[in-house]
Design a protein that fits this description.
Aminopeptidase, Transcription Elongation Factor S-II, Chain A, Peptidase_M28B, Transferrin receptor-like dimerisation domain-containing protein, TFR-like_dimer_dom_sf
Length: 291
């Protein structure tokens, strides 16, 4: 729903609109988490004067709202296959995660109205406001509202698990000639690249369209560069290093039993993450020439 040249996709998952609507849940690229928070502060819950941010617990909103994106999410292929920052969201009552009639012959307007207690129009309007405001922020401002620091937490958690696993295997003698610091150094490179983009944003003239365009190119490289170039898109379509499925993912490395394969997977993951950091950093001489 955003401009095509910026390749940002926003998906409204209305199959999740169900009775009560006490909760709002979303699965999204970490690049979009900050934008979700800002948007929640400006949109009210259905049939309520409270903002979505207030209703979901303010500082506790991430725990209540955010879900790990799975293959069942309609936006998942855009994120894990194409490397496009994406989001799926829906409204649910307490203790229910999905619309019970989705994918069945009972998925019709009558049952939807019943599940929303005949407030389907209010819930739909809220969903439209939320998606519309996110879209406006993405296409109106010269600089994309994507937070490259959003991946710091997920990357750190994944690298820590691998570091602990590799360190244990190395000390026990099961794994040789492998250092658990390899991936950690790539993590450090990502952090420095993310901080570099944040510093550039803080010190730039946001009315300078050309400077913003160049910085937007660096920001948009993040998600796509996290797609592993070392696996076949035919055999492993969901190539995302953190959110994909396959032996190339950081989660798979933690569970690896074959030491030779683990060594190869660790090396490829390290190069993948380092390549992402390099793409984010850009070439300073090319940037200066373009400006």
């Amino acid at each position: 729903m955003s401009s095509i040249d910026r390749s940002v996709f926003t998906y409204i998952n209305l199959d999740g609109v169900v009775m009560g609507c006490e909760n709002f849940v979303a699965s999204a690229s970490p690049l979009l988490h900050s934008l979700i928070e800002r948007t929640m502060k400006e949109v009210s819950m259905p049939r309520s004067a409270s903002s979505m941010y207030e209703a979901m617990g303010k500082n506790k909103w991430q725990t209540r709202v955010l879900r790990t994106m799975s293959m069942e999410d309609p936006a998942y292929p855009f994120l894990a296959f194409a490397g496009i920052p994406s989001i799926s969201f829906h409204f649910i009552p307490e203790n229910i995660e999905s619309y019970p009639y989705y994918g069945t012959s009972l998925d019709n307007m009558d049952h939807l109205n019943y599940q929303t207690n005949h407030h389907t129009s209010e819930v739909t309007a809220t969903a439209a406001r939320f998606a519309g405001l996110m879209t406006l922020r993405l296409v109106h401002d010269h600089l994309l509202s994507l937070d490259v620091s959003g991946y710091k937490g997920p990357i750190t958690n994944a690298v820590f698990q691998i570091y602990k696993q590799v360190n244990q295997l190395t000390q026990s003698g099961q794994l040789k000639d492998v250092s658990p610091t390899w991936l950690n150094r790539a993590r450090g490179s990502y952090f420095r690249a993310a901080d570099g983009i944040s510093n550039a944003i803080a010190n730039m003239d946001l009315t300078d369209k050309e400077a913003c365009r160049i910085l937007n190119d660096r920001i948009m490289r993040v998600e796509h560069s996290l797609l592993s170039p070392y696996v076949s898109v035919i055999e492993t379509p969901f190539r995302h290093l953190l959110l994909g499925h396959g032996s190339h993912t950081l989660a798979s490395i933690v569970e690896a039993k074959d030491m030779e394969k683990l060594r190869t997977q660790l090396a490829l993951a390290t190069w993948n993450l380092q390549g992402c950091a390099n793409a984010m950093a850009g070439n300073v001489w090319d940037i200066d020439d373009e400006i």
